[in-house]
Amino acid sequence: MSLVAENVWFRYGRRHPWVVSGASLAVEPGEVVGLHGPSGVGKSTLGKLLAGLLTPQRGSTSADGTPPNPDRRTGRPNPVQVVHQHAHLAMDPLWKITTILAEAAPGSAPAEVDPSLVPPNLLDRFPHEISGGEAQRVNLARALLTAPRYLVADEISASLDPISQAAVWRLLLTAVRTHGIGVLAISHDRPLLAAVADRVVDIADVTGTIQETVPVVT
Amino acid sequence: MSALLAVSSLAVSFHQYERGLRRRTVVPLSAMDLTADRGELVALVGASGAGKTLLAHAVLGMLPPNAEESGDIRVDGEPLDPPARRARAGRGIALLPQSVTFLDPVTPVGRQLRRSAALAGRPDPRAAAATALTDRGLSPEVAGRYPHELSGGMVRRVLTAMAMMGSPDLVLADEPTPGLPAEAVRAVLHDLRRIADDGRAVVLITHDLPAALEVADRVVICHDGRTIDEVRPADFTGNGEALSHPYTRALWLALPANGFHLPEDS
């Protein structure tokens, strides 16, 4: 039972270079794994592969043994949720916060949201009327409303000041510990990962070693 | 002798209409004070929504028509009204904007550089554009590329080249580092430091306190639309004993390397 990438390879087209080459990684429930590396080496792509937003050309990803996808027949949301860096871009600018949250759990949303995560006075505002830190809390609350088993937190605090950053992470860590959610925390910021993660892996280490054992297909 | 840029008690409010004709006034800036002199790099640090970008836009006379401004903005000791400041934008005062969206996505960057050279009144825009590229360490073939074909660090250098075209005395750099890899961040910051060392005034607007501390001569902290503190970078040390303002100390102690504390903890 874990979130697993097994020897996954991904590129955007046959003529393009591999963005992720033979990456293997596992995140256990309740564990926070930091994924570190400079930009442009495929950290976010690996996160999207693990969340089923991209499909690997080779290798496989799974969440607790099943593919990381929503089940449209039963209406079950994706067990792997992504929280993006730019919270405002992940929201419909014409929707109020209530509606944005209701996207994750239609009908019941506002009642179930933890008031320490999204203060009730934010609910009837529009995204442009709240700050970056507040928007990231809404973004996180929306992901948690789907009762995910895993979260991919992709540079979630890179656009935030230090106090908002510490606040968002404090809330995230409390929530994932309460519910035993596994987290892949993607960041270029080593001190941040050292503060939030149980263990930190470097993207070069999760791809490099595997790469050598895989025969090159010509 | 007065500072090159002196902003005092700057307040900005907006009139907005909600639901038909009901009017409301929002006051995003209530009391901002900032000075920057030649040869100096001043960092303006605060949370998103604290009014940092708005201050830069006010200095450039770029506020939207529904904005109302009060207070005093002096350049070289001379009080300037918004139209006078706007007239200096791109010449005496330059903005180094936040992101790639400030470039035209469907025009090669070379042509955009030539246009900013022409707007800055350079006699030979073509030559000025070519020199500007090489000055910022970019190869001439970059001129033929479109913005989306450049990395984040290269876009930043193109934007810097455009901002420097009019040889401004004052450069306002608005969040120039987020989303860049560590090496590119360092390059951008040192580029700004060099611009200041050339005898210009640089205002670095950022939420990234560690980045600001690396290059700034002074750090001005703003919070909720007002500037609340001014600190020397050397005072950010240890447990923040040298920081007198509680918000400044909270910013410092919230850094992951300093314990990741929240103000409500203490």
TrEMBL record, chain A:
Residues 3-216 form the ABC transporter domain. Keywords: ATP-binding, Nucleotide-binding, Transport. Residues 54-78 are annotated as: Disordered. SMART domains: AAA. One of its GO terms (molecular function) is ATP binding. Gene3D superfamilies: P-loop containing nucleotide triphosphate hydrolases (3.40.50.300). It holds the Pfam family ABC_tran. The keyword Transport applies. It comes from the Bacteria. The keyword Ligase does not apply. Belongs to the ABC transporter superfamily. This is ATP-binding cassette domain-containing protein.
